[in-house]
Specification:
The chain has 2 domains: 212 residues; 186 residues, Glucose Permease (Domain IIA) (Distorted Sandwich). The chain is 57% helix and 16% strand. The chain contains 7 helices and 14 strands. Strands 1, 4, 5, 6, 7, 8, 9, 10, 11 and 14 form a 10-stranded antiparallel sheet that branches. A two-stranded antiparallel sheet has the order 2-3. A hairpin with a 3-residue loop joins strand 7 and strand 8.
Amino acid sequence: MLTNKMKFVNSIIIAFLIFAPLLGIAETIDRLKQEIAEKQTEIEALEKQAKRYEETAEQKEKAAKKLDQTIDYLDGQINSVALKISITEKQIEKTSLFIQELELKIIQQIKEIEENKKNMAGILRIIYETADENAIELVFKYENFSDFLNQINYIENLQKELQAKLDALVILKLQLNLEKGSLEIEKESLKKYGDNILAQKNILTNQQNEKERILSITKGEQKKYEKLLADTEEKTRAIQKEIFELEDKLRFTIDQSKIPSPRSGILAKPTMDQISQKYGPTNETGFINDFYNFHNGIDIKSGLGTPIKAARNGMIKATGDNGQYAYGKWIAIEHDNGLTTLYAHLSLVSVGIGDKVEQGEIIGYTGKTGWSTGPHLHFGVYATHTFQIINKWFGPLPMGGHLNPLDYL
């Protein structure tokens, strides 16, 4: 039979092997998980509300023929952006909680690793002390042979537990590295959310300024608003005609040897939203209007303030603001493969001329600047050797021999 001393030592070993749970940390982690789940529920509710806002805003935009309807539409857009700011704030709170959870898990795992090391040291010490006695000494140490066999089995069990603890230590270290990697990713996400909320606040200010601009020009009078619309449409028609005529000529100057052959995957989609108008003659794209009869890019329907990403690594060739005409706020990126991409009707530009950007990097946010019907992104692709910027009375205008973006996405 094992001695009382052996039984006591054995109970100590078992206590070592079965870690006493770090109750304080474990309880805090559980609480954080609950708070994270609550934040996620709040975010989902806000996102549903934001979607309803966008659908309502789209209906109001189509019906905005009078000044009061236009102001109502702008108020809806202002409320929509304000709601997106609330969503981003909740996402920041959720991510901060998740970072706290990861940090606590890391502390917990470090403590468990240290406990494992202590446990292994204790087991090794017992095995070492037992190993000092040779087999003959062990045989005569016990009153009967069964006690001797029990001691042998005890040592074998200790060795098995030692191996199990060693395996657990390896797993804990792997988990620790994974948690540290996740922590860095979440910290980067937190930074992106911070940048996003600053952008959204700028967009909110711009929308408020646009409302004030219209009210200032019209003095709240419908007739003045109708005149403003008529003047804008007349100028827009002339601008669109000029763009079409110049680009139609530039298309014939495209040197096919200087651009890549059409194939998917050369460019990444700047936003994953739905394409609302394709490239080509308007009688084929389904958007017949009085301003242009050929669509020189694709339109991607996106809610106001949607992040826009670079379609490929490149350098910011130019940026511009055409006010309520042409492309509004826009960005042009020159790539390494003979293509230049255009991102237009933005609410906010986040890059400057000469900046180097990577594919997937946020460069701006969707809007309704320039001549546009509702918030969306106009995405154009040009042969770089034909691309140029022409200075006009309403700002710098990007021009070039355009290509079908769908041939490269």
